[in-house]
Amino acid sequence: MTGPLKKVTVILLVLALVTMFGFGCAEKEEGVVTITIGEMTDLTGPASPWVVSGHLALMDAVQYYNDEGLIPGVKLKVVSWDTGLNPARTIPGYDWLRERGADLIESVIGSDGVILKPFADKDRFPVFSLTAEREMTEPPGWVFCLSQQSDMVMVTLLQWVSENHWDYSQGIPKIGFQGWSEAHTVSVERATEEYCQAHPDKFEYVGGFLPPQGTMIWTGEVEALKDCDYIGVFGSPAPAFIRDYRAKGYSATMLDPSTLPTAQRFCVAMAGWEGLNGTLSASSSPVWGPLPIIDLARDLLSKYRPGEANDIIDEGGMYGSGVLYSVVIFEILHNAIEEVGAKNLSSQAIYDAAANYKVGGPLWEGIPEWSLSETKRYLTDHILLYEWSAEEEDMVMIEDWIPMVTEWVTE
Fold it and tell me: Of all helices (H) and strands (E), which one includes residue 382?
């Protein structure tokens, strides 16, 4: 292992040790209430290149809120649990975080939110997931999703492609799907198949190919999907699959419902700009775009990580997304505290504030009016659309805030 991947691995191992033993040891201050955020993420496993910058964003946002006193009378602290992308570590992590005083949990990996939902609902304990899928949001419970629901994003991509990208004088395009067989990916693949079955005039579905989690050899999947016009790709294995698919000379356009923009540098290292060229990626968080919430992310990098700022920006959009999601959680906490007082903060108060939350104010200028409610458990209702360009060596935004398709199968 050489170059940037070796550097990333070393950094992740150090972070894992530091977060397990170093964070959350703030001194008690007289008259100040400490609120503990339990973070469940992957710092050392296959998803770490995507999400470790989000961990840094959470830590920086916590320090910023504490330094500036943005929640009066409150200090925030973080305790972190590294799953290593091993679902067997999800429930032990839930118990470990709560034992260490977590008032809520921020869950980063999609499958963790699915696993946690019945436990959170039974314990009436708030979990904020940075990913969203139907199993987390229906029926509405104690898991609140701060991003787009991934099956809806995939279907929105498919509808946009059918209306704006494909030339139907060439016939009906063939589409397949690739990813690991884990809960979050399975839900996106299922939505892809359902949409194609409901709209046979728009797509011919070749099939979904979901080997076990951890698979990194794609010979069979590449050959099965070689004649596709489009391929839905999702999760950690996407860059390696794209690399192997392009190495065989196959030309399908990749459709990515939000995975790749968070780890741009890693994806380029794996698949190259030529391999990624033409890929369409959706995102509900602007990738370093000129918006106040993203300007705040840049400011935090300059303030707390000046020597790393350029590297973190070059990694992709996860740090900016992490700041956005952190601010949502902190605003929900602030709203709950304004309602009941810091000393009376409870799981129910956090739940009530989350179920009535909507973005607003100067920090959210340029962002649609996203909201949660008693019945709606995913925050974002729109996506941005990017195209990967080998010529520009960048992701180029081609559509601004597309409303998400929420229903695609008629009874």
Answer: strand 382-389
Strand pairing category for 280-283 and 382-389: antiparallel
What structural domains and CATH numbers belong to the chain? 3-149+287-381 (3.40.50.2300), 150-285+383-403 (3.40.50.2300)
Can you tell me which residue has the tokens 């999907």?
225
Tens digits of per-residue pLDDT, 317-336?
999 999 999 999 999 999 99
**Neighbour-count burial of 25, counting CB atoms closer than 10 A to its CB (0-12 exposed, 13-18 middle, 19+ buried):** exposed
Q: Residue 16 phi/psi, 5° resolution?
A: -60, -45
Write out pLDDT tens, residues 217-246.
Answer: 999 999 999 999 999 999 889 999 999 999
Q: Considering only CA atoms, which of 203, 202, 197, 207 is closest in space to residue 177?
A: 207
Nearest to 80 by CA among 63, 55, 115, 99: 55
Evaluate if residue 200 carries a pLDDT over 50.
yes
CB 293 within 8 A of CB 367: yes
Q: Parallel, antiparallel, or unpaired: how do β-strands 253-256 and 143-145 relate?
A: unpaired
Categorize the per-residue pLDDT at 134 as very low, low, confident or very high, splitting at 50, 70 and 90.
confident
CA triplet 109, 43, 149: central angle to 5 degrees?
Answer: 15
Minimal CA–CA distance to 42: which of 129, 137, 109? 109
